[in-house]
Amino acid sequence: MQPLTDEQIEQYFRRLHRLDIWQAIQDESELTELLSRSVTSQREDETPFLRVPLFLRMLAVTYADDEQANRLVTNKSELFEAYIKRQLSATVREQSRQSRLSQPQGYEWAYPNVEREPAERDTKRYLR
Predict the structure, then answer these.
(1) Where are the strands (E) in 56-103, listed by range?
(2) Whole-prediction pTM value?
(3) pLDDT, tens digit, for every residue of 75-104?
(4) Which DSSP string do the residues of 72-83 spell out, in sequence order?
(5) Residue 2: φ, ψ to 5°
(6) What is the rounded distance in angstroms from the CA atom of residue 47 to the CA atom of residue 35?
(7) Which residue of 32, 34, 118, 126 has the lowest C-beta tally within 10 Å?
(8) CA atoms within 13 A on the CB side of 55
(9) Which of 27, 35, 31, 28 is nearest to 6 (CA)?
């Protein structure tokens, strides 16, 4: 798979109506650097991680929160932490639950509601 070009990345954020993220990538040197080099590897041939579609998606999801918008990620580890924190938040879990419950096939949940689910810190501990 070839790394995404600047034009492809811009188009992706344009389709999401999130050109603010593309602008932040261009304006903030920490983010711009993530497009030009690999920050977690010594290998010269490794694709810069913000040129990989999965990581762009994670960045878009992470920056969907106003709380995260003022905090820039500077490496993969910070992106993973911010993404996991957002995905484990009660608000996001409840939105996901409501969205899936409205679908015709329905879903079964391990817990009857978000309040009965394990706390974020417990879930993180289980994932490690």
Answers:
(1) none
(2) 0.71
(3) 888 999 888 888 888 777 777 777 666 666
(4) ---SHHHHHHHH
(5) -85, 145
(6) 9
(7) 126
(8) 21
(9) 35
Is residue 93 within 8 A of residue 110, CB to CB? The reply is: no
Residue type at position 85 = K
Nearest to 90 by CA among 70, 111, 69: 111
Fill in the amino acid letter for 9.
Answer: I
For residue 10, with 0-12 CB atoms within 10 Å meaning exposed, 13-18 middle and 19 or more buried, which class applies?
Answer: middle
Tokens (6 digits) for 33: 């650097």
Name the token pair of 16.
Answer: 């999401």
d(CA 49, CA 46) in angstroms, rounded, equals: 8
Q: Which of these, 99, 69, 74, lies nearest to 86 by C-alpha position?
A: 69
Structure tokens given for 46: 């490794």
Q: Which residues contact 106 (CB under 8 A, 6 or more apart)?
A: 100
Residues 6+ apart with CB under 8 A from 12: 4, 53, 56, 60
Q: Residue 38: what residue type? A: S
Q: Which tens digits make up the pLDDT trace of 22-31?
A: 998 888 888 8
